[in-house]
Amino acid sequence: MKNHDIQHLSKIDSISFRNDLISWFEKEQRDLPWRKDQDPYKVWVSEIMLQQTRVETVIPYFNRFIDWFPTLEEFAEADEERILKAWEGLGYYSRVRNLHSAVKEVQETYNGVVPDTPAEISKLKGVGPYTAGAILSIAYGKAEPAVDGNVMRVLSRILLIKEDIAKPKTRKIFEDAIRELIDPAKPSFFNQALMELGALICTPGVPACLLCPVREHCFAFQEGVQAELPVKNQTRKSRDVQLVAAIITNEKDEFLIHKRAAKGLLANLWEFPNFEIHTQLLPKRSFFQEQFEADFGVKPSVGEFIAKIDHVFSHLVWNVDTFSGKLAPLIDKDVMESSKLRWVSEKEMEDYAFPVSHQKMFAAYKSGTKRLL
DNA sequence: GAGGCGTGGCA
DNA sequence: TTGCCAAGCCT
For chain A, what are the domain ranges? Predict the structure, then answer.
């Protein structure tokens, strides 16, 4: 660490800072389901769910997840369809596949006990620097930094750190600061308090400094520049993708669904057959039929237009022209298997994990069906 | 290091 | 409406 990176660090009374911060946390912390105990498995699950995801969104998912998989061992033995279903709608689905892989690793290598050293825990899939520090401090009481976006925002203000927090190497500056400031007696509360402060008081935009328990320690507040921090220079441009999809049924009122590839966007989730449109040469119905026949060897009939579904991802936007369609269930059984196609009843669809984009498509289909009755 | 990887809430 | 954000990690 270069000292000039954190010139205000040495001016902080770390004992007083810790006490003010932790006293506030002990009084004001939210009653959250993952704070009921310090089971390393539950702490781990909650930390993975909370990555880039709001607390209010996570709460019901966490409760259901622990209901379905109360212990690390039970989650390790779950099948992939079930774990994806548990994550359906949460986003960033590789999180749950990595968690599953890591939990199985803990079962096999560590006899079912989540490791408590930085070196071991960091080797687990999906456990990066933040999650490692969070589990080690919250579940095991180790004085390790857990630097997330909240911590960088809060500390950038308190210590007047103007490094760009969008740059990966900047995290180390904050980890070094935390190692100086962390309460060795209460590392769990210290780390959680910093994040709680970021969530409740030291928010992005205009923070509630008048309610802040540590504003006397805050150099940004002293200089009135809290709204200018943190510095974050990253704009990720998203790209538009045109798709044509069809909700295809057979004479038994079953739906044709397809399992997505094991890598990439929405990996291993199920979907209604769809294709990306690169050029606009053919009418969309014809394009869909040709692509479908090329991939699966039979040609469906494509019926009425259902809806144009717009769905925004973090890095791209889907624009999906959705049609209804009909197909006799005559696709060869081996082709169905190798093409990862399946006919399922509406009831059976409940057991499959679909991305939100396809839930929107199905909702539009259902409302269209209802209109026809 | 930069970009892939979801979703919903909010100004 | 549009863009930005919210307890990151992987490649």
Answer: 3-228, 239-372
Query: How many angstroms separate the Cα of A312 from the Cα of each of A290, A316, A318?
Result: 27, 6, 6
User: Which candidate in A26, A28, A47, A196 is catalytic?
Assistant: A47
Helix then strand count (H, E) for chain A reads 16, 7
Give me the architecture of the A3-228 domain, per CATH: Orthogonal Bundle (1.10)
Residue whose CA lies closest to nucleotide C5 C1': A204
Measure A288 CA to C7 C1' (Å). 42
pLDDT for res A9: 86
Closest by CA to A353, choosing from A73, A125, A102, A79, is A79
Cα end-to-end distance, chain A, whole Å: 69
Residue range A303-351, pLDDT digits in tens: 999 999 999 999 999 999 999 999 987 677 888 878 899 999 999 999 9
Distance C3 C1' – A328 CA (angstroms): 45
Q: Protein A171 CA to nucleic acid C9 C1', in Å?
A: 14
Choice between A280 and A268, residue whose per-residue pLDDT is larger: A268
Question: What CA–CA distance (Å, rounded) separates A30 from A87?
Answer: 24
CATH superfamily ID and name for A239-372:
Nucleoside Triphosphate Pyrophosphohydrolase (3.90.79.10)
Nucleic strand B near CB of residue A313 (< 7 Å): yes
What token pair was written down for A291? 């692509």
Phi-psi region at A105: left, alpha or beta (left = phi > 0; alpha = psi -120 to 50): alpha
Q: Give the residue with minimal CA–C1' separation from C7.
A: A50
Q: Which helix or strand (DSSP H or E) is residue A172 part of?
A: helix A170-181
pLDDT digits (tens, 9 = 90+) for A246-256: 999 999 999 99
